[in-house]
Amino acid sequence: MGLARGLARKRVWAGLVAGGVLLAAVLVRHAPSARPATLVTVVTFDETVGPWTLQGTVTPRLPDGGEVTFAVRDQAGHPAPATLEPEVVLTMLDHPMNPRNIKLTQVARGVYREALPLPMAGRWQVSIRFPEGTVEIMVQAQEPPPEMRAVRERANPIPFSAQSMARGRTIYQAECQACHGLTGGGDGPAAAGLNPRPADLRIHMAAGHTDGQLFNWISEGFTGTAMPAFKKSLSEDDRWHVINFLRTLVPQIR
Prior knowledge:
- The chain is an alpha+beta fold.
- The chain folds into 3 domains: 1-31; 38-144, Sandwich (Immunoglobulin-like), CATH 2.60.40; 162-253, Orthogonal Bundle (Cytochrome Bc1 Complex, Chain D, domain 2), CATH 1.10.760.10.
- The chain contains 6 helices and 10 strands, in the order αββββββββββααααα.
- The strands form 2 sheets. It has a 5-stranded antiparallel β-sheet with strand order 1-10-9-5-6, with no helix packed on it.
- β3 (52-60) and β4 (66-73) form a beta hairpin.
- α2 crosses α6 (236-246).
- The N and C termini lie far apart (86 Å).
């Protein structure tokens, strides 16, 4: 009996050890990367929740993470009151992790922005919550390639001047105004037929996106939208001139 019990115990321990090794192998193979990630593409949204219309984007924030920026307007098109306090919840969909509440910064009346920490690659859900309902945006994150880490910090080599602003305005009128509108509000004559609608550039100016970010978006375009890549049709200097002109749109949303 003693020998039989001893053999039985050994079999149990052997089974536990083997199971533990197998479980560890599965976790190593299927656990997502724990290194910080950034978004794969820019995601635009134009949604209605109760009396409010939301228009904005979720963008990469290099060297890692993301950033949500959006404007809230009432049915008449007026910016939402400063007392409105929407909430953002960030949820990892591919790995068990507690949702994270993100406190938004109001950068202008009715315009909100905040960084989104993305500690690992995978699918994330950005939920913008109002008392009247929730807008849910699905985004994909991956580890950023080394060459993209310097994009955000890239400085505009063209000093702001009346000449640069005038050149940027001319280019904007020829290349951008049909979609983004006279004042950058995303309401140009071609906007109505586009889905998603063109971004309100005043939002992004008020939100404080860096010149490096703007240059990258103008150069590479937005996947999944009608925004083309201008890196072949516009010189680098002209792209920087456009950014200098776009900076003049900021006061119009305040």
